[in-house]
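Encoded backbone
================
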Amino acid sequence: MMNFQFPEVTECKATNVNVRREFHGDERVPAFDLTFSKEGSNELLDLIDPALRTTLYFNAAADQGQAAMPDVLAVLPNLRVPKLNAGKFKYGDKDKWKGFRFVLDYGLGDAQSNIDVADTTVQVVEFECKEGGSCVIKWKVSFEADKLSDELRGRLTGLTDETVFIQLIPSSNVQLVSGKQPKAAESEEDKDATDLFREAHGDDSEADADADGEDSDDSPE
């Protein structure tokens, strides 16, 4: 399950609009791929993977002994390897996650004026790390548009290079539909008696048991 989401209305930039047709059963229906970007502090990387920020950034002053403020999110302004890939990275091996509600909010205080689409697919495209503690993240939202009116489709086609306000809200059933499924942790119910024995006594226990068995074969009858 990915952490990427914007449950509150969030400002970002629409960088590309791709209008296409895809099959819905035997019927070809209109569909959109909307690409967005957002620039901000490198805390945005936590939306993609909580390990990214500490992997790619550090705090040079703190490493030199400067005391950190208690109960404050660690400030990591410095790139660990500034020349690594020019700071630009792909992520997720083209993973696409389906089950997000996408809202394009026009700020009129009227939900009827917004574009609201359920069950969209989200893909994190890339991110760029910058010295000083900022970054840019880029993602794509894809969906069928057969239920949208011609007026709403027209609004979407004109979004390129526009500053917009959106929400991206995961449902309770977000699923990976393209890419590699993360390996699930093994539950206790999935473990057999041998696995549980090894956990309790260590891997050497099995070797000891085998050794005992070999000794018993050599014992006199």
User: Anything to note?
Assistant: The two ends are 60 Å apart (CA to CA). Residues 6-178 form one domain. The chain has two domains: 6-178, 188-218. The beta strands are 6-24, 27-41, 57-58, 78-79, 88-90, 96-105, 115-130, 134-144, 162-178.
